[in-house]
Design goal:
The longest helix has about 35 residues, at about 65-95. The chain is mainly α. Strands 1-2 form a two-stranded antiparallel sheet. The chain starts with a helix and ends with a helix. The model is unreliable at about 185-220 (pLDDT under 50). Helix content is about 70%, strand content about 5%. The protein has eight helices and two strands.
Length: about 220
Amino acid sequence: MYSDSNIIFVVFAGLGALLVVIPLPKALASGNVGTSMLIIWTELATLIQFVDAIRWNRNIKNWAPAWCDFCGYFLTAADVALTASSVSINRRLYMIVTLHPRRHEKAFNTVVNIVLCRMIPSASIALQYVVQQYRFYIYEDIGCLPGVATVNLAFPLVWMLPLFAATVSAGYACVYYYHLPPNRHLPSFRHSTKYTTFSLFYYTHPSSRTMHTSTKLNGEK
């Protein structure tokens, strides 16, 4: 038997996993690395928690040690990856709004996005290993979670990394929001999304008519 709270969690986790993947093809087609990685990390993390909530419903038995090892490391990386993907999105918006000279350098921006969305989350796994007390923890109705010890060193190495990335992302967001023209509105759905800069705004933040037009022209060859 499932507890009422666990049934609700499983249902909403399943729905979330189905819904979050819907915009992924559009994001991939537009070349929007930050948004694509945000969707992918969210999808995988939601699926893992969906499966764990079913398998460890009202029990704490160590059914699959290898799976729990994977869950522990992945969820640690996902905590950092979600905020790092937000940094990638807001950094790109910042470069567009402020007309940064490197905003059209595709190779450079791709490398930066890969570092933010893939390499930094992977590095967080190595940092977790430094303060790892057990291979993983198993919680009833939740499943496998990272086995990080509650020690002082765990805060800068593990727990504060998502907060730091979120702070950087918020800084970029404040700057680009400050530079947006005052007459902001949602972009129309009838416009083409073949322009990378337009599709970036389309998936992240309502922009003004003036900014929408200028980024579309900048994207033309």
